Structure formats: structure tokens, C-alpha cells
Amino acid sequence: MSTLARWLMTGLSMWVLALPSARAALFEDDDARKAILEVRQKVQQMEQSSAKQAADAAKTNAQLLEQVQVLQRSVLDLNAQIESLRGEIAKLRGNEEQLTRDLADVQRRQKDISQGVDDRIRKLEPSKVSVDGREFLADPEEKRLFDDALAALRNGDFDKSATMFGAFLRRYPSSGYVDSARFWLGNALYGKRDYKEAIASFRALVSNSPDHPRAPEALLAVANCQIETKDFKGARATIGELTKAYPKSEAAQAGRERLAALK
């Protein structure tokens, strides 16, 4: 029996005992039993209601506990997913940083390669040069060969210089250096006492470029070659040609002096 039922029964008993004896006599035994049964029935109903409420509460608590457990498992799963995502994010960040470094390295190498290509292209590209008062474009190899041949001449290596200038003229027949190369080839041949070939080289310059700044010197050099070969008649004719074509040149003045010496 529940606490509530015991309390009700106790109260009922006390109430019955408290009735005056005279009044109690008025009740019949059946009425008393009936009243007691009604009370018991109400108590039982109350007990059943309390039990039902307790069962419902227990069921509700069980359901809530189950829901809480489900939520706890969900939270644990979510936490695990979050940690996994954090790991993936950290990995992706690491990969991104590596890719950034790799990209920077590629860009740096690409820049170096591009710079190297540009430098090589510049080395191969024609550049403006000025020789004997004339400007023109020459590629780096062309300029190098001419300068090397001229350097050999200035060092007194006439054989080497003549060979190099001859090779230059064959390789670059249309070069802006051609006239100057013919002049210096003539000087190299003169230096090695190949006067016939020297005259041919000087004459080629005068014939192809009579307005070249070295043309007067070339004619004087022809006269000198003729003097070396004892062709004084030819030397006088050449000096006459020089003074007539280039009367105001220094070469013409020097030719007049040589002509006077020949007489």
C-alpha cells in the first residue's frame, strides 16, 4: 500500500473512531462496509493512477535517456568528423604551402631561363657599329671575326691577319665591314710583301666604294706597292689618279711628296 493510501485509511479510521457513539449506532454495518469499500476503491484508483504516472514518467525518462544517448553519440561522431576535417584542412594547407613554394621555384627558374634566353638572343642580335665613319648593323660573330683579324694585324701577325680577313670576306660578302676589311687585308698582304694581291685588294675597295673614307689611302697604298716592285711608271700614274680624284686629302698630299721623290 502506498503512503497516500495508508494516510487516507488512517484518516478514515480516526474519523470513524471520533464519531460519537450515539451517532455511530445510527450506521448499519453494510453502510460502513460500503463506505470502506468506496474509500478503498478510490485509494486503488489513486494508486493505479500514481503507478500509471510513474510508469509513464519512467517510460518518458527512458525515452529521454535514449535520446540523450543518441545525441551524445551524434556529438561524438560530429567531433570525430570535425577532427578529421581539421586534419584534412591542415594537410591541404601544407599541400598549398608546398605548391606555393613549388610555384615560386618554377617562376624563378622560368625567369632565369627567360633571362638567359634573352641574353643569348641579344648576343645573336645585330647591333649598330661604326667603322671608318660609317654606321651599320652587324651580328656579334661578324664583329668578333673582324676585330680579331684587325687585332692580329696590329700585333704584326700579317699571315694570320691576311688569312682571317680573306675568310671574313668570303663568309660576309655583303657585310658593312667589307670595304674596311679589303683595306686592312691589303695592308696585311703588304706587310707580308704580297704586293700583287695587296694591289688587288686596295683596287677592289676603290672600285666598289670610291667615296669610302679609306679610298684615298688605298690609292696611295697601291702606289707604294708599285714602288716596292720598281713599277715607278705605274706609281706615278696611280699618284696622279689619287691627286685628281681626292685633291684635298692627306693621302693626296703625301702622294705629291712621293711623286717629287720619284723624280
| Average residue-wise pLDDT | 84
Task: Output the CATH homologous superfamily of the largest domain.
Answer: Tetratricopeptide repeat domain
| Tally of DSSP β-strands | 2
Largest sheet features: 2 strands, antiparallel
Q: Rg, please?
A: 64 Å
The first-to-last residue Cα distance is: 169 Å
Biggest sheet strand order reads: 1-2
CATH class of the largest domain: Mainly Alpha
What attributes does this structure have?
single chain, 263 residues, mainly alpha, Serine Threonine Protein Phosphatase 5, Tetratricopeptide repeat, 2 domains, two-stranded antiparallel sheet, 81% helix, 4% strand
Word description of this protein:
The protein has 263 residues and is mainly alpha-helical. It has 2 domains: 3-97; 127-262, Serine Threonine Protein Phosphatase 5, Tetratricopeptide repeat (Alpha Horseshoe), CATH 1.25.40. It is 81% helix and 4% strand. Strands 1-2 form a two-stranded antiparallel ribbon. A hairpin with a 2-residue loop joins strand 1 (127-131) and strand 2 (134-138). It is rod-shaped. The chain starts with a helix and ends with a helix.
